Amino acid sequence: MVQSQPPSPKSEHRFRFPRKSSFNGNGGHNGSPTPAKHGALSDLKRFLNQHIHDDNPKPRKVRTPSPGASSTTSSRSSPAASNANLLRPNHLSGAATPTPSLQEATQAHLSKKYGKWGRVLGSGAGGTVRLIKASAKNGGTIFAVKEFRPKRTGESEKEYQKKVTAEFCVGSTLKHTNIIETVDIVSDHGHYYEVMEYAPYDLFSVVMSERMCRPEIYCVFRQICDGVEYLHELGLAHRDIKLDNCVMTTDNVVKLIDFGTATVFHYPGKSSHTPATGIVGSDPYLAPEVLSQDSYDPRKSDIWSVAIIFLCMVLRRFPWKIPDPKSDPSFRAFVNAHPDLTVARP
To answer: Which residues pair with 192 in a beta bridge?
Structure first.
């Protein structure tokens, strides 16, 4: 089987690309974009408004499986084939559908504290995300508010609250340029809401614009690496790194989001690392050992996922649907072409 390589220690050979980039539309369309000069920030804003922003986008379901999930996604096709379909992973089959509406009392409570409710950004197994905007006199700040999914049948209130507060505690502890900031958590009428900073552009849309030149791809890749390195230094693994969980600000800063499946692999004062278990993540981004081993190093699986993101940015498609040589011919071809990466199963 192919196994992701161990994380490398810090070295002097890290990328030195500038952290800011403007997607100015000079990239190629055949998987090998042509380098282009970086334009002004206004060029990026104009491009994003023309090619990415949608005043009335449809809510997009995002797969966020639970840490205990033990199955992979099922195949799903779209009648209109496009490059976007090649990059969009399938959703977790049988995932619970969150309640789409917010209780009026809760709306009023959050509106009083943060501002006026806006459109729904998307929904998934973990909950629904919606915008909220402060009034002009209060600065006009826009936040993203996640309403956590309802308590499941058979799930105790204690278990439910533990899962909700765990995600908030993880998010609120992280302080890094390339990690989304968690501002607040609100509990009202049995519903839980996480208030976060809002980054208006998702990396998937930026990649699918087909306008990223190589230096811009490297810049984005470096920022993702910085965010993941920060998590790993804290002893935390994300476990669901993918294009959909990377967003971008108007200043071209890339940020990792959604820590609902994060796990602690190293505790302060301990020399040993705790392996991860279970199949967590989205099929195309999974490391092979996540499927083939009962336990694995979550750092390595994170790094594998980051590498898949890099391939997606360059190719604008997934290299394979799932890293299983028995069921995926593309991955089988990769394994056969690189026997040096194949190791015997333990």
So the answer is: 187
pLDDT tens-digit series, residues 63-84 = 433 333 333 333 333 333 344 4
CATH of domain 41-55+202-341: 1.10.510.10
Q: Are 230 and 291 in contact (CB under 8 A)?
A: no
Give catalytic residue positions. Answer: 240
163 appears as a binding residue in the annotation? no
d(C-alpha 94, C-alpha 97), whole Å: 9
Query: Domain spanning 104-197 has what CATH number?
Result: 3.30.200.20
Residue at token pair 């087909």: 210
- Element housing 143 (H / E): strand 142-148
This prediction has a pTM of 0.69
Per residue in 197-247, pLDDT tens?
Answer: 999 999 999 999 988 999 999 999 999 999 999 999 999 999 999 999 999
For the chain, which residues make up each domain, given as ranges?
A: 41-55+202-341, 104-197
